Amino acid sequence: MNVRHSRERAWSLLLFGKGTVGGHVLSLLASESERLRAEGVDLRLVGLVDRRGAVVAASLDPRTAREAVRIRGEKLEVAPLLDRVRAVAGPDGVIAIDCTASREMTPIYREAFDRGLHVVTANKHPLVHPFAEYAALIAGARSSGTSLRYETTVGAALPVIGTLRDLVRTGDVILQIEGSLSGTLGFLADEVSRGVPLSIAVRDAHQRGYSEPHPRDDLSGHDVGRKALILAREIGMMIEPGDVTIEPFVPTELLAEHDARRFLEKLAQHDGSFEARIARLRSRGRALRYLATIAPTAVRAGPVEVPVDHPAARLHGTTAMIAIYSRRYADTPLIVQGPGAGGAVTAAGVLADVLAIARESSPARFCTN
Ligand SMILES: NC(=O)c1ccc[n+]([C@@H]2O[C@H](COP(=O)([O-])OP(=O)(O)OC[C@H]3O[C@@H](n4cnc5c(N)ncnc54)[C@H](OP(=O)(O)O)[C@@H]3O)[C@@H](O)[C@H]2O)c1
Predict the structure, then answer these.
(1) 320: Cβ below 6 Å to ligand 1?
(2) Nearest Cα residue to atom 28 of ligand 1
(3) Which residue, 101, 223, 294, 307, is most buried by CB atoms nearer than 10 A?
(4) What is the Å distance from ligand 1's center to 134 Cα?
């Protein structure tokens, strides 16, 4: 039997962001494009955008694109940028890839959908607006026949969104989702549970590059809250950002400290009470974890005391875990577990979303005769 590639389509890519994740996406395009082309998927980088400007060309070398945007990047409004990308893409399908952490990408997605561009995003912000805006965004993609894929917004490249979607589509009913969704908070919970003072563990996380520049941004729990909201909406909950209850990992009053150095100093004052809490938990055979819980009645993110046989109690380091309890998986949850952060794995997840769009949008790509 011969397998031949038929009506294969080339794909033009417009990348927003060239930081940790975007940089790895560029590296992957450089290393994998030739092999993918041989398999019938022709990916071409036609645009790169950072905060300062954009570079657009019929074919950009992913190896030098960062330098190109630095030297030749020009400030472009959204409409002229997308029009220029459409023009250089010609008959190609176009995929915009959002590897920024910007809160202002939603209008860009809308304009992209209007022009028939697909969107792949690692950025949570466009998915956590008030429900009406979120629903309008999803509807916008649908009505223009384009795709919006965001697998890497929860658990990086771990198959979380796709797994949930498949369960719901095949008639399962999700009863509860529990997840350790922050590499930083997972690391901290594991460290303090093993007796490391909290302020030392936070400094360590910072030095290893796990945490945000200001540790408060992780310890507040807001990022986990955003992921919980995305999961809740994925299973059909029409909830608002304010409906997610978020309890920080540290006492709330600490979060008011804007200066990162003073924050760490103040944190040390809480080491004693944290150690006492951990000792009490240990004596009762329990461990501290920071979990998101999504149930039909409530969505919350916060510190939780779990028994030692809980799936989250076995986690070490920055490993993420999502346990899905459903009608089909009622007694033993379906568990997705593995590295839930990092530029390399996240970029791989972004590329997988790009390839999924290429696959779905090329109906006759593989013909057999
Ligand atoms: N890092 C991870 O492990 C991980 C895992 C899963 C998901 N994510 C998500 O992936 C996204 C990127 O994370 P990152 O770690 O790569 O961040 P990063 O290193 O800070 O890079 C962000 C990039 O976005 C660019 N940028 C910011 N605002 C922009 C705008 N309005 N228009 C165009 N470009 C803009 C920045 O431009 P400049 O170069 O000019 O500063 C930078 O290149 C975030 O939303 C993050 O939550 C990250």
Answers:
(1) no
(2) 102
(3) 294
(4) 21
pLDDT of amino acid 149: 98
The rounded Å distance from CA 25 to ligand 1 centre is 12
Q: For 166-223, write each residue's pLDDT tens digit.
A: 999 999 999 999 999 999 999 999 999 889 999 999 999 988 878 787 888 899 999 9
CA-wise closest residue to 249 among 281, 280, 292:
292
Residue of 15, 16, 21, 111 to mutate, ligand 1, most atoms within 8 A of C-beta: 21
| Torsions phi, psi for 263 (to 5 deg) | -60, -45
pLDDT at 206: 85
User: Would you say 342 and 156 are in contact if contact means Cβ atoms under 8 Å apart?
Assistant: yes
* C-alpha dist (Å) from residue 3 to 9, 33, 41, 366: 17, 21, 15, 7
Q: Give, for 113, the enclosing helix (H) or strand (E).
A: helix 106-114
Q: Is the distance from the beta carbon of residue 17 to the nearest atom of ligand 1 less than 6 Å?
A: yes
Query: Are 18 and 47 in contact, with CB atoms under 8 Å apart?
Result: no
